[in-house]
Design goal:
Layout (H helix, E strand, L loop, with lengths): L6 H27 L3 E10 L5 E10 L2 E5 L9 E6 L3 E11 L2 E6 L3 H15 L19 E5 L5 E9 L3 E5 L9 E4 L2 E9 L2 E6 L5 H8 L1
Antiparallel strand pairs: 1-2, 1-4, 2-3, 3-6, 4-5, 5-6, 7-8, 7-10, 8-9, 9-12, 10-11, 11-12
């Protein structure tokens, strides 16, 4: 024999159904706009009190990312991340979970497009940490100024450059992961080599801006 449904229960069921129907289009719209994919990208993030922590992004779309980290900011807190291959990313924490948290990006449409392009390349299955997303070339204007984290300015020669990084000839060997400024372009030192060191720009550069500076 079935149990009669009280008017209150029926009202609650109707309310829940209405809420699901209201939420569904938003979820579907989000999935249509930004397809998420599994990745494995190392990086760092800075929270509102300026403390920095390492992280590993394991899921990403042009709209946000989920990452493993030793520290989880509070929901709603702004974080600024630097993720390999992606550069600098501004966002807000939307949820936390054991060992990590998720971020919704607060970035321009142009930057979302750049992320989509890198994810497309990543999903090709041909990626490797040493692969170069953007083609490098020898600049016509190679002599430039380099600013180290200490604020000291040094002359250097750019061996080759791309939208995402540069190889620099110099006797200097800044610490790996230290932030330097090449001309007006900020980048992090990613490795040393026989002639100097390589940097990865904090964000993918505008082609016209790069051409004006380096030729």
């Amino acid at each position: 024999m079935s149990t009669p449904i009280s008017p209150e229960s029926e009202l609650e069921t109707t309310s829940q159904r209405t809420k699901r129907q209201t939420d569904r289009p938003k979820i579907l719209e989000e999935r249509r706009r930004f397809k998420r994919m599994d990745v494995s990208l190392n990086g760092r993030f800075m929270v509102e009190n300026t403390n920095e922590y390492p992280c590993e992004v394991f899921n990403m779309s042009p709209g946000g990312m989920a990452l493993w980290a030793p520290f989880s900011p509070r929901v709603g807190e702004r974080v600024i991340s630097y993720i390999e291959q992606m550069g600098g990313l501004d966002g807000t924490v939307t949820r936390t979970f054991e060992g990590g948290f998720a971020v919704e990006f607060k970035i321009s449409a142009r930057k979302r497009e750049r992320i989509a392009n890198v994810l497309t390349w990543y999903s090709s299955g041909e990626h490797n940490i040493e692969d170069r997303v953007h083609e490098r070339y020898a600049p016509r204007i190679a002599e430039h100024k380099l600013i180290l984290p200490s604020g000291t300015v040094h002359a250097c020669r750019v061996i080759d450059i791309s939208l995402s990084g540069a190889s620099i000839a110099s006797k200097l060997r800044p610490d790996i992961d230290s932030l330097v400024v090449l001309a007006r372009h900020r980048g992090r030192v990613v490795r040393h080599h026989d002639e100097g060191f390589a940097i990865e720009f904090v964000e993918v550069q505008d082609p016209d801006s790069l051409a004006r500076t380096f030729g």
